[in-house]
Fold this protein.
Amino acid sequence: MRSPPRGDDVRITPRLLPVLLLAVSACGSPAVPTPSDAPDPPATKSAGPTVRVDAVYPGASAHVICDTVAVPIEHQMKDLEGMTSLESECRNDGSYRLAVRFKSGTDVNVATALVRERVALIKARLPPVVSREGVTVRNDDPGRFPTLWVAAASPNGTYDAMFLNNYAAQRVKDELTRVPGVTDVRAMSRSEIAIRVWPDTDKLAASQITIPDIVGTVELQKILFEAEQAGRAPAETSVPLTFTYLGRRPDIELFHQTCLKFGPEQTVIRLGDVSRIELAPKSDGFTRVGGRPAALLAVRVIDTKSAAGELRKKLAEFEKTNPKDLTTGLVADLSADRFAVIELRFPTEASAARIQDMVTRVEKLVRDLPGKPDCLAVSESEMSTEIVLVKLSSGDSPSPADLRTALAQVGGAAVRVSNLLSGRPFPVRVAILDKVGHGWAKLRAAGDAVVQRLAQAGVALDPALTQAPGSPRLSINLNYEKLKQLDLDPKDVVKAIGVAVGNPDITDAILDSWWMSHSLGKQFRGANELKKVELKAPAGKTIPLGAVAEVHEFVPEATMLRVNLHPAMVVTADVPPGKTVAEVTAECVKAARAVVPRGFEVCETSAAEPR
């Protein structure tokens, strides 16, 4: 059987969730002075095309994705003609992203075709669920911020965030993707409305009803059970079950009346008798413009000038048919103005309410600066990247130094500030590569040492690792011999595990890899509780999961980066006034090489965060 990461490969530290704040002047003058207004480094000007590869492995950890998806794909790409670098990212949410960069002068269509051919060759060697989900190839640099930002808002508060998100997703998003020059449109918060069920475990036990019984009964009505995103957990300690309808609006009353079984004397036990049921969005992400709820769409384009004009025409058409007190407009154009970026990182245990309160406070601090700059804020659940964008709407905008001073009083979050040069925040990027297999724990220690050295030397502003430490997870190893002895179908066992932890998509991950991991948050109390999950044997008896599986907690890397086929940690930083990106990057590489142990390599890297 495959074993989970060893204890010496992980480091138990509070994970930090990144939150970004974007500042922009909407009046045409520079929002923030850039360091000597120096031109971008030559490497940026002469950069060749970048081809992006995306894949999804539902339920798999970053470690599993790295071994089963990243390694085979990247080895297939390593000798591509004209390729200059490979930089990839594996996340605990099951996502994989690879940037294949080519030398200057390479035809973008040729580069895309070369990558697509290699992906087709390797597909058969990928886990079946990855192939089924699809591996996409497109011409796009995942490291650059989307250029255009569109918002659906309700100035007088007639519509709430849930309505705005659904309106943007159902009415606006698809139309914008058809605009000439637009390559991608991404909703910055989940917009689906769902039913969230909070089972009462005591009532379930008294009624001899299991969570799989609930899921099976509800699914008979063609209602989908979906994974509850881990990350920001509510105060409850039970596991929430999230359901969505196929083409219908969720009906709470239908759920309350759902018959689960007949009790003594033919009394009906309904779902509402043993659960609390609520209507809710499927994630706790939030987006705001000017301090008010709004739905934000991030738009990537080929030619910003022409695409922005076409986009405005399309949005003007929407204004003719939008409901009263609902507006759709272009709220940020990164190509037209100068920007500053503020990054906030919160501890793992920070709740959604706490983070929203903190972001509200930051917005107020920014708006109280000279010029009364306005704010545009975006946040997502941890399973994609957690970001917040803040827009400054005054011509007399503060400098990065002013922002740092104003935000120094913010407690409970790590704060960084950067200019946004060439579409990238924190443009100084240095990678530490593990060339000999030291392991992720030692690689992170080397990255921490580099960050400390750069901060002490003062060669760059606000240096930090892009990868936050991981959060506690559950490792589950099935004993297939015991399963056979007890006549238990592994697929049924895995389904029960998936339902218990609120993630049904783990099925393929655990069956393909022999073990799986799942985020351990406030909604689940730990390994001992999972061991008590009851499995139904053919004879009608119930067997605890702990009798057929090893379950324990561990702390993996939440995000695993690879640069040119090697595990990597990436340090990002901003540029001090009076220096160029190239100058500061060279100084950072030199300083980093002085502190990393033997077996590690330091180099600059062109990829950027967040995605």
